[in-house]
Each structure stands twice: as C-alpha cells, then as structure tokens.
Design goal:
- This protein has three helices and no strands.
- It is mostly helical and 82 residues long.
- The chain starts with a helix and ends with a helix.
Amino acid sequence: MKRLLALLLGGLGLRALLRRRSPAPLGPSPADGLRAKLDETRVEAQAPPEPAPEPEAEPTVGDRRADVHARTRAAIDELKED
C-alpha cells in the first residue's frame, strides 16, 4: 500500500514538474508596439520642421499693465455682485 501511494504521489509530482517547465503560449509582445512607435517618431524627427509662424508684435509694458488693470477691475466687479 505504501508503494502504491508513493508511486501515485511521485507521478503527480512529476506531472506538476513537467507542466511547470513547459512554456506558456505567448501573445503579441508589448515591446513590438513600442518599437513601432519609436520608428514612427524617428521618421517624424527626420522630416524637415515646418517653418514657425512669424511672431506678432509684443505688447508694450503700458498695454500689458492696462490689460491687467482691466481684468482686475472686472474680477472686483464680479465679486461685488455676489
């Protein structure tokens, strides 16, 4: 009886060992998708850059100050209405 039990347990252990060693079927690798994105980025980086639009004339200090004061007055008026 002991031999039968030992043989049965040994068989189950061997089966578990063999099942653990067999590789699981793999799906698509996430690295392949990342490589494709990297290749796309490299192609885009090699393309000549588009010319930047010409910057508009910068507002003067007085214009910026007047804009800040106008926004501040509007905010104060809005708070007074509440």
